[in-house]
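Standup notes, structure subgroup. Blocker cleared on the magnesium ion input:
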Amino acid sequence: MKIYGPEAIRNVAFVGHGASGKTTLVDALAFVSGASRRHGSIKEGSTLTDTSPDEIERKHSISLSIGYAEWMNTKVNLLDAPGYLDFFGEVICGLSVADGAVVVLSAVSGVEVGTERCWETLDRLHLPRILFVSGMDKEHANFERVFNDVKQRLTPKVLPVEIPVGDGAQFRGIINLFTQTCQLFKPGSKAGEFEETPVPPEYQDAFSRYKDQMIEAVAATGTPVVVVVIGGSAVTMSRWLDRVGAVVMAWYPGEQGGHAVADVLFGAVNPAGRLPITFPLEEGQLPLVYNHKPTGRGDDYVDLSGHPLFPFGHGLSYTTFEYDSLRFDRDTIGPGDSVRVSFTVRNSGRRAGHEVAQLYVRDLLASVARPVQELKGFERVSLQPGESRRVSMMLTPRHLRMLDGSGRWVVEPGAFRVTVGASSRDLRLRGTLTVR
Ligand SMILES: Nc1nc2c(ncn2[C@@H]2O[C@H](COP(=O)(O)OP(=O)(O)OP(=O)(O)O)[C@@H](O)[C@H]2O)c(=O)[nH]1
Ligand SMILES: [Mg+2]
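Run returned:
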C-alpha cells in the first residue's frame, strides 16, 4: 500500500441496525477498490472485518473493526460498526473519529429502531452521511418503500443518487441519476463486475421522477438555483419550475459548451437565444405549435390550459427591450407588390444586449383556412443600454402567398394582420395591411 499523508486519509463509519449488511458492504468496497484480494462472505466467516471467533460463529459484528479502500488517491478507512444495540458504545467510538458515515439499511425492513438511534447520534455530531440500501436481491426488497420510510422517519432532505433496476430475484443492477448510466450485473458475478448500458426504456419514468425530486430538493435548500437543461427537445418542468430562479436551455452544446454556459451563468455573456419550438406544460397538450389553424373555439382543456409553458420564439436576457412606432411604407398594396415594415426597438434595461425582433403575419380572410400566425421575418439587434434603433423588414409576395384550393400559389386580396414582438406570444405592436 502507498503511504498516505493525513490530508489524503478519510475515516468513514458504516452504521445501521443489526444485520443490515454493513460488514458485507465494507468487504465488497475493499475488494472492488483492490485493497483486498478476497471477496469474503458472512456465511463462510471470511469477511475482512468480522474476524474474531465469536463474530465468525455468531455471524454478526461485536466490535468496531477497520478495513480500508484506496480510491482516487485517498485512503478511505472503513470503520465497520456492530449493529446490535448491546454494542452501541462501539458505534459511538467509530463515529467520534469519523469524517462521515454510511448508514446501511436493509431493503426488506427499511428504517428500524437501530437506524433511528444511529441517525440521532449522527445529528448530534453533525456528521455528513449517505444512505445505502442493501439486500435489494432479497425477497420482499422494496427500494421505494425504504426511500419513503427514510423521508418520513429520518429526514425529508434525502435524494437518491442511484436507483435499483428490478428487485428480489429480478434485481439486475443500478441506475446512476448523475451520470445517467445503468450498470447491469451478470448473474453469479462478483462485486464490481457489471456491464454499462443506457437507462432501460422501462425505467425512464422512474428516472425522470427522481431527477425532478433532485431539483426540488436542491431548490429547497434556499440557495438560488439555475437549472441547465441539456437536451434535444422540449422537457416538462411544471413540477419544479416555480421553485428555481432560472432555466438555461443549452441543447447539446458540444465540447466547449461548459465554457459557454459558464459565461451565461456568470453574466460575461448576455444570452439572446430564442426557442425554435414550443415547450408544452404537459405531454397531454401535444402536438402544440404556434402556427396552428384556427380552431373556432378556446384552446383550453377541461383540466389544463391550452397555452404553452414557453412559446415559440421565447427567450430572455439580462436586459429588457421596448418596441414602438410600427409603420408600413404603404398601407395598401397590389398582389405583386412588396411593403417595408419598420419599427423601433429600445434597450430599456441597464445592460448591453441583443434582441431578436420577430414579425408575424396572419391572413385574416382567405379561401382556405390559414394559420393563426406565421413567422415571416426576424432580426437580431444589438443595443447598448438606452440605445434605440429602427428595424425594417420587407414583406414580399412570397411572404403573403398561400396555396389555394387547386394547389396554386396566390396572394389573395384582403386584410393581413402584421404583428411584431419578442416571441409568438409576446407581441408588442400590430397593424393591418390591405392587399387590393
Ligand atoms: N442476499 C443478500 N444478503 C446480504 C446482502 N448484504 C448482506 N447480506 C446478508 O445479510 C446478513 C447480514 O449481513 P452483515 O454484513 O453481517 O450485516 P451487518 O450489518 O454487518 O450485521 P451486524 O454487524 O450484525 O449488525 C449476512 O448473512 C449477509 O450475507 C445483500 O445485499 N444481499
Ligand atoms: Mg457487521
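Discussed briefly. The radius of gyration is 31 Å.
Next: hand off to the docking folks.
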